[in-house]
Amino acid sequence: MLTSDFDYDLPPELIAQEPAPVRDGCRMLVMDRHTGALEDRIFRDIAEYLQPGDLLVANETRVMPARLLGTKRGTGGAAEVFLLRQHGTPLENKSALWEVLVRPGKRLKPGTGAVVDFTDAAGEVALSAEIVNWVEDAQKGERLARLSTTLASLDEALHAVGHTPLPPYIKDYAGDEELYQTVYSRRESSAAAPTAGLHFTPELIDRLREQGVGWETVELEVGLDTFRIVDEDDPTKHVIHTEYYSVPQHTVDAIAETRARGGRVVAVGTTSVRSLESAWDAEAGTVTPRDRETTSLYLLPGSEFHVVDALVTNFHVPRSTLMMLVSAFSSREHIMAAYAHAISERYRMLSFGDAMFIH
Questions:
Q1: Are 195 and 43 spatial neighbours (Cβ–Cβ below 8 Å)?
Q2: Which of 147, 164, 130, 129 is nearest to 93 (CA)?
Q3: What torsion do the CA atoms of 43, 45, 46, 48 make, to the nearest 10 degrees?
Q4: I need a surface site. Which of 89, 156, 257, 278 has the fewest CB within 10 A?
Q5: The pTM is what?
């Protein structure tokens, strides 16, 4: 097995630069994971492939306003701070340490007193970031920044100055940032959206519930490494990123009930897959509750799936761990044939693109 086995030619014009006009009106490629048989459908048709007693499990994380554009104090030079994750506990309501990426890196080094100020819509400084240290074992030059504000809280300040980050392959999108959030998102904890869920509408979820399909959630805090391609020729040498995830008791109970009545567990997105399979307790032979634990689960062809029976997903970046995950869920041959079909049929690809349903 080589990383190049999961590569394919992605025409740049097929990378969706904006969401579908109607969330559940996008296209959906349906694939039988065992035979590779394909059908071209519309996303709302997923109701025809779900049975009473099936259970959908979605990642309810919400994308933070993590992209901060400001100026370096003292010089006025443009600077960007990208929030990755909070470091430790808040120092107080108006101050906290965060792990961040910065640009320009050479001018925002720890120990130099570098501070970046961010202004609100009225032009007033609402948030400041002092670069105080390097992150231990950093892979991409991550730094620790002390965020502080004069507003009532950091949360208020972030929403006054921050922007929802979009994937690097989406250029110049100026539409509604809320369209890069799922309709069921809750706590802001991610740097990227769990994009398979972008296709669901409240009306579709209600219709599925009326049909007897269950709906439960997990939370996995999606990091920027979700966009990272595998550089090693041997994919087994790749060190996958670590993310925090939670699986609540009510979801564990719903999975047990689904299994008892012969229904299927349908993961909405690869992040839900990683959460559910990470929560599998082999000794107990069941899923167990998890509360913000870490996972570095790496699913490759040959990996076993204990919890997930079907998968709603998007089309993924070539040579990514996500290509390997969906190949593990079906087979490399079936997935590559499906992608070749999608490209020939001009499906819209990646985060804002069309969907797949693998069952």
A1: no
A2: 147
A3: -170
A4: 89
A5: 0.94
- Residues 35-87 have pLDDT tens digits of 999 999 999 999 999 999 999 999 999 999 999 999 999 999 999 999 988 88
Q: What is the pLDDT of residue 139?
A: 75
pLDDT in tens, 151-162: 999 999 999 999
Say if residues 252 and 214 touch (Cβ distance below 8 Å). Answer: no
Q: Please state whether beta strands 214-220 and 67-72 pair in parallel, antiparallel, or not at all (unpaired).
A: unpaired
Q: Which tokens is 97 given?
A: 């340490």
Q: Which residue has the tokens 């913000």?
A: 292
Segment 290-319 shows an average pLDDT of: 97
Structure tokens at 214: 């269950």
Output DSSP code: residue 15: B
CA gap 343, 339 in Å, rounded? 6
Question: What is the tens place of the pLDDT at every residue in 229-241?
Answer: 999 999 999 999 8
Rounded to whole angstroms, the Cα distance separating 351 from 359 reads: 21
* Distance in angstroms (rounded) separating the CA atoms of residues 326 and 318: 12
CB 93 within 8 A of CB 153: yes
Angle among Cα 31, 269, 221 to the nearest 5 degrees reads 165
Paired strand residues for 117? 71, 128
Q: Which two tokens stand for residue 241?
A: 């990123």
Q: What is the pLDDT of residue 199?
A: 98
* CATH number for the segment(s) 3-63+176-358: 3.40.1780.10
What confidence score (pLDDT) does residue 116 get?
98
Q: What CATH number does the domain located at 67-161 have?
A: 2.40.10.240
Taking alpha carbons only, the member of 255, 244, 228, 249 closest to residue 323 is 228
